[in-house]
Design brief:
single chain, mainly alpha, 17 helices, about 0% strand
């Protein structure tokens, strides 16, 4: 372990501790987002605007890949940190082995189904005759690499949650550097186009997976693989899925929403509008991933202190997390409002595509500052094992608010109605998250008085 985690998580100053754990996670998640942005930039400039649209059509399927991986990784990492807080070393080791096996099983099953039905899936996701070949070429390689990506994501989250935030950050750094080196070679020099971008991604993830596996094979790691704990237990599987269900549903609902957005954009704006959404999605995802990195840094602190019944430290961590989350998304709001054309031009040389993306992003980010708080609050409930509340908050923005807006607004305002659906749902989701948090704080306050 990088430090005596069982000591510092319960005693170190929260501000210092949150910096120590969040900065590596933020760097890691930022690098992960840059990892995806690099693909978009190289594809946009090396293949063309239709390739950007084809990549955007692939987003729902990539969201599903992430959804099924977080079903295991989020639950496994949360429970592992709680077990360590309870001084249950054996329990944390069992969680590790279950996380590894479930990642492999889920990825193989998902990959088989997705590969067999790839063309119908992509068409349903909004692909046209012009963009389907690009989307297919990219996703065939990505799907074949799902066991690698699942394992890397799942075990890297457990590594971070069990006291190795810097080492987990290095996983992202290694994969990003490898992708930066390989992608331009495969796309430009070898002329492999979309397949080259996907192959660079899978090879980079393979390097990251080897790095993570090496950590857990080391007997000196706080939590490591042990022969005696490989027997799968229904109780543990159920616990992992229960807590992982919240981020799974969040990503699965995001998949459903992107399908609706793509098909609506296809109807009202065509392939170029879908390509513009691909650019907007990549840009906003960068800031969301930074906030998610913050919540990953919060998770072991919150989980440990919640398990140890240090409620005041849990509250302090949450308070700081909300403040930092709002600062992060507010910076995204300012950049996208002030320089929409400049940030859109990073991805393409097409003037038409830049104009559509710049117009859309200024509408999409109107309520973006509040998104940081909403994400932090939702992940807070996940970190303390309140799966039902976390699931509810995960679904409110995507399904309860955004979906109805997407079905109604385009009929009145066309493409601008699609863009406008996002800030409306952001504001409503923020109000819901704050309300849920206040109810919970009031509840634990009454319990403290009763005790």
């Amino acid at each position: 372990m990088e430090k005596n985690t069982s000591h510092i998580l319960g005693t170190e100053k929260i501000g210092k501790l949150l910096l120590q754990y969040s900065i590596p996670a933020i760097i890691g998640m930022t690098l992960t987002s840059i990892y995806n942005i690099i693909d978009s930039i190289f594809i946009g400039h090396g293949v063309g605007p239709m390739a950007i649209a084809g990549l955007a059509v692939s987003f729902p399927l990539m969201n599903l890949v992430i959804a099924f991986s977080t079903l295991v990784s989020a639950g496994g990492s949360t429970i592992a940190s709680i077990r360590l807080g309870q001084r249950d070393q054996q329990g944390a080791t069992e969680i590790l082995s279950h996380t590894f096996m479930l990642c492999l099983t889920n990825s193989v099953l998902f990959g088989i189904v997705a590969f067999i039905f790839l063309d119908p899936i992509l068409t349903f996701f909004g692909a046209s005759a012009d963009t389907l070949p690009y989307a297919r070429s990219f996703m065939q390689i990505i799907i074949l690499g799902t066991p690698i990506s699942y394992t890397m994501i799942g075990l890297n989250n457990v590594m971070r949650a069990t006291g190795y935030p810097r080492k987990a950050m290095l996983t992202s750094m290694v994969t990003v550097v490898a992708n930066i080196i390989l992608a331009p070679i495969f796309i430009f020099h070898l002329g492999w186009g979309m397949r080259g971008a996907a192959l660079a991604t899978v090879i980079s993830q393979t390097i990251g997976m080897i790095w993570v596996l090496n950590h857990f094979m080391n007997q000196e790691s706080t939590v490591h693989f042990e022969k005696k704990v490989w027997k799968m237990k229904k109780r543990i599987i159920s616990s992992i899925f229960s807590i992982g269900m919240s981020p799974f549903l969040m990503n699965a609902s995001a998949c459903a929403i992107v399908i609706v957005i793509n098909n609506s954009l296809q109807s009202h704006g065509g392939d170029m509008a879908i390509g513009a959404y691909g650019i907007i999605n990549r840009l906003l995802t960068l800031y969301i991933m930074i906030v998610l990195g913050l919540t990953m840094g919060m998770q072991p602190i919150v989980g440990y202190n919640f398990g140890a019944q240090n409620i005041d430290r849990v509250k302090q961590t949450l308070r700081l997390g909300i403040i930092w989350g709002v600062i992060i998304t507010s910076s995204g709001f300012l950049i996208c409002e002030l320089f929409p054309h400049a940030v859109s031009a990073i991805f393409t040389d097409s003037g038409e595509l830049i104009d559509i993306a710049a117009s859309g992003i200024r509408i999409c980010v109107l309520m973006f500052p509040f998104v940081g708080a909403q994400i932090v609050i939702g992940n807070f409930f996940q970190s303390i094992g309140k799966a039902k509340v976390s699931i509810f908050l995960s679904l409110t923005r995507q399904l309860l608010y955004l979906l109805p807006c997407l079905l109604l607004f385009p009929h009145w305002w066309g493409v601008n109605g699609i863009w406008g659906s996002m800030p409306v749902s952001d504001a409503l989701a923020f109000i819901t998250a704050v309300g849920s948090l206040l109810i919970y704080i009031k509840k634990i306050g009454k319990q403290s008085l009763a005790n």
